[in-house]
# Entry
Amino acid sequence: MFLKNTLLLFVLFSSSFCSYSVRNQEALESDQKFIKLSETDPAFRCNQESLHYARKGDLNRAELAWDGCAKEFFQSYQIHLNRLRFYYVLEEYEIIKRKIESDSPARNSPVYTKIVQELYDTLRWEERVIVLDALSRVRGWELYSYEELANYYLHQGNFPFAESYYNQVLEINPFHEDALFGMTEIQTHNEKWYSVLDYGKSLVVAAKKNKDFHYFLLKANYELGRYAEGLKWVENASDKEKSQISFLEVWRDLLLLSKDKPNWNPLLPYYRKAVAEGYAVPESVFFPTLDASGREARKAIRTGRE
# Structure
């Protein structure tokens, strides 16, 4: 009976990594992202032993060795990065997430702060997402993790994921500037103009770092046919924002559709600044009431909007 139970435990233990493909194990052998420590580093031998088991394909011993290293040398961010890399190459993302949760680092942990920054600096984006996702479940890290994940997915063009994480940020802090800015961008992309107005108006209150958000309010009002309301926001925009072509185009179109004889003088200094910086569209084309053909184009635009 004892022999049978021992054999059963051995089978269960030794088969915990059986599902890994040869491809995963070969990837471990050749992976170049594992960090080698100096021989004078206290964690050197522990790291070498863990790497040895991993490259040899002895995955159970490698797992135990990495866990032991992370516990004994918790302040070594390189050990944590190597343990992360081990599970990342094996595509066992949930296992390493649970281990990070178990570490339960404080929000001001220099180790995990360094880990997140190192992954950013070395462009290891997928591993960074794994760490941030795990940290989002650790008390104190939620807001930071949600914001970083939202920014990542926005940069990737994954708007549904970005929106989900920004919403979680706003649940914690309804006037979080970066989250409001991100949501305004997403709703503009999705052409949800009333939502753009809601988030944009919140930015009027919340914006401290980046005040160049008035384009979104112009654009939303333009698309909703609220031309006079859109023009009111022009006054609040900075000279820098007014010099952006996207802003100038909407400003121009608002005037085209709300004035019989639009006055281009307020736009000209900003248009000319854009031209000085390389914008190549001629004045007679950009302002379509400056010649007869342009006036006809304006009529067509107004007819199409009305």
